[in-house]
């Protein structure tokens, strides 16, 4: 980090301290009787646990990605995930939660002043769609989703982005892409919510957005100068997959916002889809003459987790097996296709997260069953003879894909103008661990 960047960072920290002193979020008073009567201790306990589980996914992702990259970029790649826990948390407290869940401005984005600095949230009225848990807990749970989404993108440009530029980019991405998309999809007045989109835990908001952003980043930053790519630690990938799978139970089952049968169904569909996808990946590899690998098993498991995310609370356990198998085969084919192009999506974020998310999003509209979730007021899926939900999801997928890809490309250009994104050829050759952080394994 240059002296100029260090000075800017120090000024930012001082500004944050002053803002926190001038705009306190309110005193911790006794919760009003009416609100306290509506809160459920079991739901609150489960959501505290789910919040912690989702946070664990980001270190899991760090190991997952860190084991895949070359040895000279392991620390930098893992840090790109870890730093999101710091940067996005600060941003979320100041304005992010308001932009995502504040008073709606046209169904597109929230009023940044609604929950500025988390004001009036300790004793605030619970979120309408999570009425039995404290509002602050809902905000912290949603924070974990905001943290992992930009972290997912990092696999597309591993080994070739400047750290300081990356910090600026994830802030812009959170403000201008993640928060509006979360608002549109999950806010009761959001434009996609009103349109009838079913996204139980983030297939659109998290995985499609990260996938298309990854593709835009890979194209913008161009190919790596490294001709060969050898994973540093397959054992890291296995560890990361285990942490991701474990944390994903909070990701999906937690999106029921209660300790109830819906959460149980989401947990069940999550684990079965992931298991089916992992098995399908290695079977498909063997069918094509390849050896069943640890890497393939891990990638397949994660693809299954990605694909089931939008559907987890809307489909049956039996149908989740199909979601896992179909998404695994489609993503496997997309990885093969990507390898034959000039697109250097280093860790295949788009074929796995982007495509996996889109497949799961469309299959949600095939297998959705209103009998499993009364919150589904849009209708049943294609399997039950109804077409409306599928059309809603197909149109949404196209529109979101175009907007996220174009918006990310614009943000990358803006970031590049302010501070160059790409490291020099010498820095890339040395490795980002040393050139960006002065550290190495």
How would you characterize this protein structure?
The chain has helices spanning 3-22, 33-38, 41-66, 74-101, 135-153, 163-186, 191-195, 203-221, 234-253, 261-287, 294-308, 317-339, 349-367, 388-418, 425-430, 432-437; strands spanning 104-105, 109-110. Helix content is 67%, strand content 1%. It has 441 residues and is mostly helical. Mean pLDDT is 93; it is low at 27-33. The protein is built from 16 helices and two strands. Helix 3 (41-66) packs antiparallel against helix 4 (74-101), helix 6 (163-186) runs antiparallel to helix 8 (203-221) and helix 13 (349-367) runs antiparallel to helix 14 (388-418).
Quick one: CATH superfamily?
Answer: Ammonium transporter AmtB like domains
Approximately what portion of the residues adopt beta-strand conformation?
A: under 5%
Helix vs. strand class: mainly alpha
How many strands, which pairing sense, and closed or not: the largest β-sheet? 2 strands, antiparallel
> What overall form do the CA principal axes indicate?
globular
Radius of gyration: 21 Å
| Share in helix | 55-70%
Output the helix-strand order.
HHHHEEHHHHHHHHHHHH
Count of individual helical segments = 16
Cα separation of the termini: 20 Å
Q: How many structurally independent domains? A: 1
Mean pLDDT: 93
CATH architecture: Orthogonal Bundle
CATH T-level topology: Ammonium transporter fold
How many E-type strands? 2
The level 1 CATH classification is Mainly Alpha
């Amino acid at each position: 980090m240059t002296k100029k960047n260090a000075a800017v960072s120090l000024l930012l920290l001082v500004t944050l301290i002053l803002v926190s002193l001038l705009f306190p979020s309110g005193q911790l008073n006794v919760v009003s009787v009416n609100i306290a009567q509506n809160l459920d201790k079991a739901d609150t306990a489960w959501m505290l646990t789910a919040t912690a589980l989702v946070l664990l996914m980001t270190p899991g992702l760090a190991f997952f990605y860190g084991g895949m990259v070359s040895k000279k970029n392991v620390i930098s790649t893992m840090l790109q995930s870890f730093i999101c826990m710091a940067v996005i948390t600060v941003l979320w407290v100041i304005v992010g939660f308001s932009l995502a869940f504040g008073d709606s401005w046209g169904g597109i984005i929230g009023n940044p002043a609604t929950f500025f600095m988390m004001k009036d949230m300790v004793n605030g009225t619970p979120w309408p769609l999570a009425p039995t848990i404290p509002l602050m807990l809902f905000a912290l749970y949603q924070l974990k989703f905001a943290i992992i989404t930009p972290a997912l993108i990092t696999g597309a440009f591993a080994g070739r982005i400047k750290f300081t530029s990356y910090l600026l980019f994830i802030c812009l991405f959170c403000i201008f892409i993640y928060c509006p998309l979360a608002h549109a999809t999950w806010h009761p007045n959001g434009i996609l919510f009103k349109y009838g989109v079913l996204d139980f835990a983030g297939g659109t908001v998290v995985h499609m957005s990260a996938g298309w952003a990854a593709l835009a980043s890979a194209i913008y930053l161009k190919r790596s100068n490294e001709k060969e790519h050898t994973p540093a630690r397959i054992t890291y990938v296995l560890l990361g997959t285990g942490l991701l799978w474990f944390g994903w139970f909070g990701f999906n089952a937690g999106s029921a916002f209660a300790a109830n049968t819906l959460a149980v169904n989401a947990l069940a569909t999550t684990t079965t889809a992931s298991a089916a996808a992992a098995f399908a990946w290695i079977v498909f590899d063997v069918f094509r003459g390849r050896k069943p690998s640890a890497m393939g098993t891990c990638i397949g498991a994660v693809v299954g987790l990605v694909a089931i995310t939008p559907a987890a609370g809307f489909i049956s356990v039996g149908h989740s097996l199909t979601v896992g198998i179909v998404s695994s085969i489609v993503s496997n084919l997309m990885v093969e296709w990507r390898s034959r192009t000039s697109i250097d999506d280093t860790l295949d974020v788009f074929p796995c997260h982007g495509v996996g998310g889109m497949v799961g999003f469309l299959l949600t509209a095939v297998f959705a069953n209103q009998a499993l979730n009364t919150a589904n007021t849009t209708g049943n899926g294609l399997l039950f003879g109804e077409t409306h939900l599928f059309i809603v999801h197909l149109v949404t997928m196209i529109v979101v894909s175009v907007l996220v890809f174009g918006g990310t490309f614009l943000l990358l250009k803006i970031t590049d103008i302010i501070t160059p994104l790409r490291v020099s050829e010498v820095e890339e050759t040395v490795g980002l661990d040393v050139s960006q952080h002065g550290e190495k394994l």
